Amino acid sequence: MSAPKIGTLYLVPAPLDFGCDAEVALTEVLPDGTLRQAAQLTHWICENAKSCRAYLKRIADLHPLALPLQQQQITELPREVHKKGDHGAKGSASFDARALLAPLLAGQDMGLASEAGMPAVADPGSSVVRAAHELGARVVPLVGPVSLLLALAASGLNGQNFAFVGYLPQDAAERAQRLRQLETLALKSGQAQLFIETPYRNAALWQALLQHLQPGTRLATAAGLTLAQAQVQSRSVAQWRALNPAPPDKHVPVVFALGQ
C-alpha cells in the first residue's frame, strides 16, 4: 500500500485589525479565493488559538467551514518562538517545527495563520515553513495584506532598496544608538529602513525618532492600515518637529520608516 500523498501548507493572511477597536470587512482586504481556501482547512498552526478561532468565525460568516469551529485542530506555536524568533539570533529560540506538521504526512492540508497580515513576514512562522519544505510538502502563500509593503508603497521612500529591521531596543541609550546606525545606512546607501513597535510603546519610540534623527531625514508613519481611519504621513524630521504632532495612538499598530 502506497504512503498517503503529503498535504499542502497554506500561508493564510489575516486582516490588519487585530487588537483594534474596529474591524474591517474581510471582503475588503482578502480575495474570495483566500477566504474559500481557508474555509476548507481543518488543521491550523497559529500564534494564539483564541484569535485563530475568532478569525475562522469571521470566515464562517462568508463561507461554510469544512468542520465546525469546535472540531478544528488548532495548534499554537511555542511562546518562545513567537516572542523571540527562531533564526539563531541572540535571544532567539531553537525550534524544530516538523512535529507540528504530522497531519501533512498523513495527507492533510494545513493552514499557518498570523494574528495580522502575512504569516512569517514580520511575524513568527518561518520555522513551520522551513519544516514543511524539509518534509517535501508544497507551500502555498495566499493573497492578503502585508503591512510592511503597504506602508513602504505609501511612504515615498525607496521601494527599490529597503530593509525591515524588526523591533528597536527598549533601552533608551541602545535605541538611540540603533537609530543613528539605521539613519547612517539609509543616508549612505539610500536603503529605506522599516521597523515596528508594540503599540503601547509608540510614544516612546516617536519621541526618540524626533530627538535623535537629523533634520533632513525623511520619516514616515503608517497607522491603522486598511482601516477607515488609516493614516500614512511622510515628512522630513524638521517638518515633523515644526508641526509638533501628538505621538501615534498607543492602541493602533504602526509601521515606521526612515530614509531619503
TrEMBL record:
GO molecular function: methyltransferase activity
Keywords assigned by UniProt, alphabetized: Cytoplasm, Methyltransferase, rRNA processing, S-adenosyl-L-methionine, Transferase
Tetrapyrrole methylase domain mapped to chain residues: 79-233
Pfam families in the record: TP_methylase
Record keyword rRNA processing present: yes
GO biological process, one term: methylation
InterPro entries per UniProt: 4pyrrol_Mease, 4pyrrol_Methylase_sf, 4pyrrole_Mease_sub1, 4pyrrole_Mease_sub2, rRNA_ssu_MeTfrase_I
Keyword Transferase belongs to the record: yes
PANTHER family to which the protein is assigned, alphabetical: RIBOSOMAL RNA SMALL SUBUNIT METHYLTRANSFERASE I, SAM-DEPENDENT METHYLTRANSFERASE
Protein name: SAM-dependent methyltransferase
Organism of origin: Diaphorobacter limosus
